[in-house]
Amino acid sequence: MRRQLVRTGMRWLLLAVGLACAAPFGAHPALAADKAKAKPAAAAPGASDEKIAEDLKAFCRKWMGFLETRERDNTRGIKWQAKGTGMAGQYVGYSKEYDCIMKERSSNGTPVATIVYKEFVYEKAGATKPEAEQAQPTIVDATEVTEIFRYTKGAWVY
Fold first, then answer.
1. Residue 22 carries which DSSP code?
2. What's the burial of 114, exposed, middle or buried (CB within 10 Å: 0-12/13-18/19+)?
3. What are the pLDDT digits (tens) for 25-46?
4. Which distant-in-sequence residues (6+ apart) come within 8 Å of 116 by Cβ?
5. Does the global pTM surpass 0.70?
6. How far apart are CA 71 and CA 75, in angstroms?
7. d(CA 117, CA 146)
8. 117-141: string of b/e by CB count within 10 Å (b at 16+)?
């Protein structure tokens, strides 16, 4: 069998060229048997349900940590506007409470999970900008968010 490297854009592709490739794909008995044995990609080989569940807990904590950082950044980037009674500004924040739920595996056996939390639009207001910056935020809108994840190649991914 002869091997050949072919550049496709920025990547290299290894082509194996031989007599078996002359027949249509799947016509060769060995290729047909391999194709029949192929299973859809599921969880990482050898990953137990307990490990997958533990990985999910860690993934959800990390996800909520990202949201905490985003909220902190949002509070630093408030765009203040003059209102009739002074200054006001809004930012997006997130609940500290969340539900991290393992779902029934998908039809191909891939573990699936959701994380449910609330997204809030907060407003701070005051007679002056410094007063508004120090004010306790009030919630002006709330939305329940559901994110869906899958477990593939040994890790939870979005």
1. G
2. middle
3. 344 444 444 434 444 444 445 5
4. 98, 99, 101, 144, 145, 146, 147
5. no
6. 6
7. 7
8. beebebbbbbeebeebeebebeeee
